[in-house]
């Protein structure tokens, strides 16, 4: 009877309750790492990059959308406030370790820190870029600063794209003109310059950015507010505490498409007009070349090139910068910058060649070029 009573005693002499309480308390303490540990983990680990998916992902602290103070729209907002506080603490710790104060930073970057919009890894990258005289000068311009803070190889990619463009377009011009290359050097120069301008914009506009833009005025229109909150690259990784909805990412494609249409149309308009002017001048001097060289249709070619850049070039460079480079290559080769640059060079060269092939097909489809005129087409992006 005594043994049976002891088996059904509701509170045995050795209750596990104290042990459970102690275990829970220990677990709770271990889940509160110091801010310094958080910074180092997020700086070196590639996993946050992979976990951020279009529309928010794990970097989304409080729902879809992205407003101007760096906190996501929707939800209760508690998680967003915590993310902003974490970003602010991380940034201040990085500044303290570097012996810097807020007063030594650019005003827009200091305001972003106060608003909790940028994590410590962005401040760490800024301090590293400042050590280079060239990068420090480039970061005086807001557009370059926002892109360099998101990708410290941005300037190298601009150099790669424009360098590849100069070489391939000059080679294509020579292949097309052969013995007339030096006789038509002015036309070649105009074509190459316009193409390089387009190449630069194709790298600049779709590049991922760290937005340091101030909030829009309350009187701004709905459309302005919407596009203001869109990322510069539809596929870019959102910073900690920030998220983009699927609609905002689609808005990035639309906004960059409109800009690239204007760039493509304008550059082609100037290039074809200059080319026709040189052709006409040559015809006036050399009457025998009147029937040999035909003027390029200005308006149709310019509009067609603008549409091509807005659709084909826009989508290809969005995927190249946001998916292939930032989400795949950067996490894998973050500690091997030379190898990363080499692979980017190869991929961007292939993308330029692909662009030339697609342009030939498109130009034939819309009727601005005849097949016999495209045996040696000029490479475009």
Descriptive notes:
With 381 residues, this protein is mostly helical. Helices cover 64% and strands 0% of the residues. The protein has 15 helices and no strands. It has helices at residues 2-7, 17-30, 35-44, 47-51, 78-98, 107-114, 120-129, 133-138, 142-150, 154-177, 185-204, 222-228, 246-285, 298-332, 337-366. α5 (78-98) runs parallel beside α7 (120-129), α10 (154-177) crosses α15 (337-366) and α14 packs antiparallel against α15. The chain starts with a helix and ends in a 15-residue tail after the last helix. Residues 1-77 and 372-377 have low confidence and may be disordered.
Structure in a nutshell:
This protein is mostly helical and 381 residues long.
Keywords:
disordered N terminus; elongated; 381 residues; mainly alpha; 15 helices
Q: How many angstroms separate the termini?
A: 91 Å
Helix content: 55-70%
Count of runs of 4 or more consecutive helical residues:
15
Structural class: mainly alpha
* Rg, Cα atoms, Å: 28 Å
- What best-fitting shape do the alpha-carbon axes yield? elongated
Order of helices and strands: HHHHHHHHHHHHHHH
Summarize the main sheet: none
Name the beta content range. under 5%
Note poorly predicted spans: 1-77, 372-377
Find the count of extended strands (DSSP E, 2+ residues): 0
Subcellular location: Plastid, Chloroplast membrane
Main location: plastid
Organism: Gossypium hirsutum
Pfam family, one: RETICULATA-like
